[in-house]
Structure formats: C-alpha cells, structure tokens
Write a structure and sequence with these properties.
The complex is a heterotrimer of chains A (about 110), B (about 210) and C (about 350). Chain A is mostly helical and about 110 residues long. Chain A is about 65% helix and about 0% strand. Chain A contains three helices and no strands. Chain A is elongated and about 55 Å long. Chain A starts with 9 loop residues before the first helix and ends in a 13-residue tail after the last helix. Chain B has about 210 residues and is mainly α. Chain B folds into two domains: about 80 residues, Four Helix Bundle (Hemerythrin (Met), subunit A); about 60 residues, no CATH class. In chain B, α1 runs antiparallel to α2 and α2 packs antiparallel against α3. The longest helix of chain B has 26 residues. The radius of gyration of chain B is 24 Å and the shape is extended. Chain C is built from 14 helices and no strands. Chain C is about 65% helix and about 0% strand. Chains in contact: A-B, B-C. Chains A and B meet through α1, α2 and α3 of A and α1, α2, α3, α4 and α6 of B.
Chain lengths: ~110, ~210, ~350
C-alpha cells in the first residue's frame, strides 16, 4: 500500500488514462451495437482528456518542472466540446443506419461487401 | 501510518473508473453499458477535481455526463427493439480485440511508467503551492488574454517578438474559441437534419413485385 | 473535529470519522428538508383546497405526519416488476438522490457557512442538478413498461431543455457580481433591500421571474409536471416504484427544490442578507468579535432558510393553483419564451453593467 502514503504523481494519471483509452479501443473494435461503438469513442476521448489534465495539473507536478500549465485544461475543454458535437453527429448517423436497416447491428451493414 | 488522503481518494476513484470502463467493455446489454459509462465518466470528473481542475470537473459533469450521455441514452432508447436483442460478439473477435488492446496497453503503460525520463522540463516557472481558481484564467485564456503566462520575463526560450506578443496577451485561444462556437452550431444543425424522421424501410429484402 | 479525535485514535481514523460525520450531517440536512417539505406540501395543499390537511398525527398540526409516512413507506412490499432490469431498477432512485444530495455541498447558508467553498459554485450546482435526469431515464427504462419509458423520455427532454435558460438566467447575477462563488455573490448584497441583485437593474428583475419559471420546470413541479402526473401516465417513470424506492425519488425531488430556491435566494434575493441590515444594527458584525460574528451569521442562516422555504412555498402554491401544461406547451414555454427572454435579459444586463458599472 505504498500509494496511500505518497503523493500521487503524473504517472498514475497517465496509467489510468491509458487504461481508459484501451478499454475504449476494445469497445470500438468488438461491439456489434452501433451505440456501443459510440461509447468506445467516448472512453477514448476521456482517456485522452485525463492525459491533458494530468500534464497541465499543478497538483501532480514534480519539483522543478512546470508542465504545460493551463494549456492542458484549455485543450481538455476543447476536447469535451468537440466530443459532444461528435457524439451528436455519430448518433445521427446511427439513427439513420437504424432507419435504413431496421437494426443497429453494425455487422448487418455489409452491402458494400465484395 | 499517515495516510495521504489525496492519494487515497485518487486510488478509490481511479479504481472505480477503471472497473466501470471494463464493465462497459464486458457487458452485452446496451442499457447497462450506458449506466456503467455514466459512472465511469463521473469517476473521470472526480479525477479532474482531484487534479486541481475544478472548473473542468464541473464542465465534464455538465456537458459530458449531463449532456452527451443523456444524448446517448436517448439514442439507446430510440434504437432499442423490445425485447432488447443482445448482440454478442463472436469469441474469435474478442480474442483478436483483446490481443490488440493488450499490446496497446503494454506500450502505453511502458510510456507512462517512464514519463520522468522523456517529459521535458517544460516551462520554467514558479511552482504554486496552493489552489488557484481556474475558472477566471480559463475564461480569460479563451478570450485571448493568458493571465497565467504573465511571467514572460523569466522565460529564456522566447524571442523578443514572442515575448512582446505574450505580454500583449495575444497568445490566447480566441480564434479556436470562435471557430468552435461556429463549429458547434453547424454540427448540431447538421445532426438534427441527418436524424430527422423519415419513412422507414421495413425490411432489407424487398418483396418481389407481384405480376 | 479531526484535531479533537487525533489524541484518542490513530490519525487516519480521526480524519475518516470527521469526514464521515460531516457527510452524514449533509445527508441529514437533505433528509430533514424532504421530511419538512412533505408535511408542508400536505398542509399547503389542504389549505388551498379549503380543508385542513393532516391534523391527527403528532398534535393539532400533524407534525409527525412525515414520520408516519416514512414508516408506512418502509413497511410496504418491495415490488420489482417481472420484465424489469433488476440492477438498474434498484440503482435508479439512488442516482437521483446522490445528485440531489451533492447539491448541498456547495450551497452556503451564511457568510462562510458552506460545506465546500468552491470558486465555481454556481457552475457546480447547475452541473450536478442536471445529473438527476439520468436517474429518471434509468428508472423509466428499467421499469420495463412503456408508460414509464414515455414519462421518463418526456421528463428528460423537459429537464435538459430547461437547463439552458436556467444557466443563462444564473449567468446574469454572476456577471454582475463578477464571481461564481456563491459566498461572494451573497456578500455583495449586504445591507438594505436595494442592494439585492434583483433590484440592480430592470433586466435582472425580469431574469428573476424567468429563472423562477425555468426552476419550476427543471424540478418537474406543476404546472410542468406532466411527466409524473397522476391523470396522464399513472405516475410516469415512477409508476412501478412503490415503498421506499418511491420515497427516495420524492426525497430527491424535494431536496433539489430546496437547493434551486436557495440558488435563487442567493443569486437574486440577497441570500443571508435581509431586507434590513439587522446584524449591523445589533452590532453583530465581524469587527466586534468571533461570538458576535457567529451570532450574526446565525441570523443570516435563519434568513436564508426563510427565503429557501419561501421559494419552496411558492412552488407548492403554484402546484395547487395552476392547471397542468401539455408536454408540447411545456417545451414551447421553455424554447420559445424562456430562452429568448433570458438571452434578451443577458444582453440588457450586460449593456446596463457596461453603462453604469457601479450601479445607478
């Protein structure tokens, strides 16, 4: 339980961010439901956001370094806004897919299969 | 034994976040996946608060959890057919996804572990000891005035021209802010148009015409 | 408290006990608010309908009625419909309740008397208030009945749409006061009635009423309560919930009503500063001494609780007086009336603050 007595460092946040990112990638790759793929995208973006915030955090900094400061939080802000916009468009695409195929299963979208 | 409470809460929230993210991957019921995703992103908001980004944590709760995930939940409800068809992925595909994910995780973890070696010294500056409010500097930075970088005199890595520009506050994110505002409007109008109700095609196979 | 306990038990236990007690106090505050509101609702409803309301339990005014109601709810059969998703059905009320309880973290009751003094407190309250809708959606889906789903979808659409004018209206006092910190906004309104932000300029006056409308719509109270109306969808998303789970939903609703009125009180009505500066007259300010400051703050807290209760009373009064709006009328009110009004008020207040920065 060494972590309970030491302050948390940058590395720990990066590990959590990496784990979220990989969960998102596996979700995007392995889910058959289109909305499930969307959820994978959200996880990926959040993993990246965590990285940004961690690099820009004054709490996690080691001695002598200054990191990227407020830029990290500003970039994370932009990512959140863009993720919301992208989720709206992706949902519109999923709804369109549902209207044309009567199912939301992405495996059924094989009309272009050779 | 003196517990560092910040680390304790970080451990708790990080474990919850990772556990629920894993639950999103493993679960096969789409509504339960949405629920676990809500909890996972709420955990990420908690991690933002713990990293000192309180405005961003609030923003994550407001926009991501309260907005984007509600949108996702609506999408789930609108595309769900009762009884909820459970679309399971074939085991072979799971293995492939796990292998790819595992390799990526290994690479990322190795990079994360060695961050001390590759992270540069960054910008030299004063190491703040107490919490600074982040909402006002963030807002001002969006408008173009970087109040957090007013210590340009101490920086040796900028040319004179860059220093003048920063002192005049011209190095903010104003252009990006304007672009993203227009972008949001355009995207939402486009999404609303794309998702409008149309006549639904009943079956993928059309009935052959009767003669 | 942690300091006190440190001499008896190991340090970590002292801190965790102190934290647990503080958290428990907050939850108890939310629960007490819910219990009092429950009794108040029945009394107010009774009086408006020209009858007495509960008078038997606990003396002439039926003060223990809330306790009796709580005991009844606990003793009811715990029913889960057959087609319901068990995990989500169980979890949904607690999601709403957690969101409603967390609001009390950032709501100050007097100058400095707040659980967590956030410098973006207004933002935090607006953000967490929008999380209750997730519990509603989960409940609607997990009940496994289409009426619940319809009610939940309507309620979610209503709450999420009303967040926009609510945030716009809350932005105006923030802009005038220059800070999102509720303690600072409250302190700015010290003194007489005219210092209240609602009387700062005519646009803020208009904003107060738009805020009130959007607040009532966002907590799903009548006349905007189609989603949980008895005559429309049985009980909307709460149809399949009985006993204690229903009680948790109701507690969440009353708790968030109280906080939204509290936000209105601080942003517009002066918070803990009364119409008259009583604390200053009685000499109970900070300069006199710590005890005087504490007493002054105590008066302020009573003032603040009075204003919150006033807000809750007005919401109850509206419920039992006005007829219910149809769902398309609800959305029309929000999207076609409240948003333009709030936007116009924002522009007007901005112009006013620009022309007369120090107040007129």
């Amino acid at each position: 339980m060494f972590l309970l007595t030491e302050p948390v460092g940058l590395m720990h946040y990066l590990v959590v961010g990496a784990f979220l990112f990989v969960c998102g990638i596996v979700c995007m790759a392995a889910k058959r439901n289109a909305i499930g793929v969307l959820m994978g995208i959200e996880l990926v973006l959040n993993g990246a956001n965590l990285n940004f915030v961690a690099f820009g955090s004054w709490v996690l900094r080691d001695e002598g370094t200054a990191g990227i400061g407020l830029d990290g939080q500003l970039l994370a802000l932009f990512v959140i806004v863009l993720a919301a916009a992208e989720a709206a468009v992706a949902l519109a695409i999923a709804l369109n897919y549902y209207h044309t195929h009567s199912t939301v299963d992405v495996d059924q979208g094989d009309e272009l299969k050779g | 034994m003196d517990i560092n409470w910040h680390s304790f809460f970080f451990l708790l929230v990080a474990l919850l976040t990772c556990a629920f993210a894993l639950a999103v991957v493993i679960s096969s019921n789409i509504v339960r996946m949405a629920f676990y995703l809500v909890l996972s992103l709420g955990g990420v908001a908690g991690l933002f608060f713990l990293a000192g980004a309180d405005f961003l944590g609030g923003l994550q709760l407001l926009v991501y959890v309260g907005g984007t995930l509600v949108l996702l939940a609506f999408g789930v409800m609108l595309t769900a057919r009762a009884p909820l068809v459970s679309m399971k992925t074939a085991p072979g595909q799971w293995v492939l996804a796990a292998v790819v994910g595992g390799c990526l995780l290994a690479v990322l973890l190795q990079v994360a572990w060695s961050v001390g070696q590759w992270a540069g010294p960054g910008r030299p500056g004063v190491l703040e000891e107490e919490a600074k409010p982040t909402a006002a500097p963030l807002g001002l930075g969006l408008v173009g005035v970087r109040v957090d970088q007013l210590d340009v005199d101490r920086r040796a890595d900028l040319t004179e021209k860059e220093k003048k520009a920063r002192e005049a506050g011209m190095s903010g994110y104003l252009v990006a802010f304007e672009v993203i505002s227009v972008h949001l409007v355009v995207v939402l109008i486009g999404a609303a148009y794309l998702a409008r109700a149309k006549r639904r095609v009943d079956a993928p196979l059309a009935r052959p015409p009767q003669t | 408290m942690a300091e006190l306990l440190k001499s008896f038990v190991p340090v970590w236990l002292a801190y965790s006990t102190a934290a647990a007690v503080n958290a428990a106090l907050l939850v108890v505050l939310a629960l007490m608010v819910a219990a009092v509101c429950n009794w108040l609702e029945r009394k107010v409803a009774g009086r408006i309908q020209d009858r007495l309301g509960p008078t038997r339990v606990g003396g002439r005014f039926g003060w223990l009625q809330s306790v009796a109601d709580g005991l009844k709810l606990l003793a009811k059969e715990d029913l889960i419909p057959q087609g319901a998703d068990r995990l989500l059905f169980r979890a949904a009320p607690y999601v709403s309740f957690c969101a409603a309880c967390s609001l009390y973290l950032a709501l100050p009751l007097a100058d400095g008397w707040v659980a967590l003094q956030l410098n973006s407190a207004v933002f935090f309250i607006l953000a967490v208030a929008g999380l209750e809708v997730l519990g509603v959606i989960l409940a609607g889906y997990a009940s496994g009945s289409k009426w619940s789903l319809f009610g939940a979808m309507r309620e979610a659409a209503q709450v999420v749409s009303n967040e926009i004018p609510l945030a716009l209206c809350a932005l105006i006092p923030v802009m005038i006061a220059g800070s999102m910190d509720l303690v600072e906004i409250g302190n700015r309104q010290e003194g007489w009635l005219t210092n209240w932000l609602v009387f700062h300029d005519p646009f803020t006056f208009l904003t107060f009423f738009v805020y009130l409308t959007c607040a009532v719509a966002s907590v799903n109270r009548a006349p905007f309560d189609l989603a949980e109306a008895e005559s429309e969808l049985v009980a909307g998303f709460m149809t399949e919930y009985s006993g204690f789970r229903w009680g948790v939903f109701f507690m969440a609703e009353y708790a968030s009503m109280f906080v939204i009125s509290g936000l209105a009180a601080i942003l517009f009505l002066g918070g803990w500063n009364g119409p008259v500066p009583i604390a200053q007259w009685l000499g109970l300010t900070r300069d006199v001494g710590p005890l005087a400051a504490w007493l002054g703050n105590f008066l302020g807290m009573c003032n603040m609780l009075l204003k919150c209760s006033l807000g809750v009373l007005v919401m109850m009064w509206l419920r039992w007086t006005l007829p219910r709006l149809r769902i398309d009328q609800v959305m029309t009110v929000c999207l076609r009336y409240c948003i333009p009004l709030a936007a116009v008020a924002l522009l007007g207040a901005m112009w006013w603050t620009y022309m007369w920065p120090g107040g007129w």
